[in-house]
Prior knowledge:
ten-stranded mixed beta sheet; 369 residues; single chain; alpha/beta; binds nicotinamide-adenine-dinucleotide; Isopropylmalate Dehydrogenase
Amino acid sequence: MAANKKLLMLPGDGIGPEVMAEVRRIIGWMDKRRHVSFDVAEDIIGGCCIDAHGTPLRDETVADAKAADAVLLGAVGGPKWDNVAFDIRPEAGLLRIRKDLGLFANLRPAIVFDALADASSLKREIVSGLDILIVRELTGGIYFGEPRGVETLPDGTRRGFNTLVYTTPEVERIVRVGFELAQKRSKKLCSIDKANVLESTKMWREEAERIKGDYADVALSHMLVDNAAMQLIRDPKQFDVIVTTNMFGDILSDAASMATGSLGMLPSASLGAPDASGRRNALYEPVHGTAPDIAGQGKANPLAMLLSFAMMLRYSFDMEEDATLVEGAVEAVLDAGLRTGDIMSRGRTLVSTGGMGEAVTAELDRRAA
Ligand code: NAD
C-alpha cells in the first residue's frame, strides 16, 4: 500500500534513540501485518544537534516537521550540554518546535494499567481502572503574558511580576479541543479555573458556557483549581476529560501522572489548530526525559514512547482500531508480568528495552492472527 502518512522522527538524546527504535519495530510490524505504511524521515534535535550543527534545532527540521503529518519525539538534553549558552540549550530546540508548529493543546492521559496499580502512591481502589485525559493550554496564559520581569523599586525593594492573560479566541480553541475529545470518550468535560479570584479565568468559564451549545451531547462542568487538586487525589475517577489553562494544567497533569506511579509509562500529544481540511500539526512524545543515568544500557522503558505512538495513530490518523491494538498489547505484556527496571517488582520478569518491544510485537502478532 502507498505510504501517505508522513512521519518525522526526532529521537533526540540519552534514551530517546533507544525508545524510538521500539517504535520502528512496531511500524515494521504494522507494515507487514496490517498493511499500513508510514513514510518515515528521521532528523536530530537537542544536544546531538548542538554537537553536529551548533544549534539544538535547524530551520530545515522545522520545515520538515511542518510538512509531516505527525512528529514523534524522544527526549532532549543531558549533563553534557548543561553548560552551553542559554539560547542554544537542548530545551530551546523543544520549545521552538512546539512554538513554530503552533502546538497550543497538550494532551496528557493518566491511565493506570491494572498490573501496575500497586506502583501508585494512592490506594489501589482509588486508582484501579483510572483513565483520564488532561487537556492543557500550552502557548498562552501566565507563562507567556506580558508584562513580565523583575524590577527594583526606588527603595531597593525588588518586584517580580507576570501577567495571566487570555483572549477569547485562545480560550475558544482549547475548550473546543476539550469538547471534541469528550465527544470521543465518555461525553463529560470538566473545565478548571479560578473564576472566583481571577477575572481572566472568569472569562474562560463564560467562554466555555457560550460554546457548550455546539456540543449538546457533552455534559460540561466547572471546578475551581484548588478543589480540582484535592479531587484528583481523593477520587480521580470522577473525571474523564479535563480542560484547563497553561499553569493549572502544568501542575494538575503532573499531580495526576503520579497516580499512575511511573514516568516510563506516560505518553503525551501536542496539537495545533486544524486547517481547512481538518489536518493539524501534531507532536507526540513521552513525558519522561533522557534518563542519562541509564542511557545506552538497554534499561529504558519504551512503553511511554509506544503509547505516544498509539496516541498518534488515534489523533493524527484516526486509526482508533490500531491505537487500541497497541494499547491492548502493552496492557497484555504487563499482565503477563514483563517489566523494565523502573516498574520492576518482586515475582515479575525483568526485560530490556528491546525485550519489552519484542514482547509487545509478539502480542500484536497474537492479537492480529
Ligand atoms: P528523566 O525523566 O530523564 O529521569 C528521571 C528518572 O526517571 C531517572 O532515574 C531515569 O532513569 C528514570 N526514567 C525516566 N524515563 C525512564 C524510562 N523510559 N525508563 C526507565 N526509567 C526512566 O528526568 P531528569 O533526570 O530530571 O532529566 C534528565 C535530562 O532529561 C535533563 O537533561 C532534562 O533536561 C531532560 N528532560 C527532557 C525532557 C524532554 O525532552 N521532554 C523532559 C524532562 C527532562
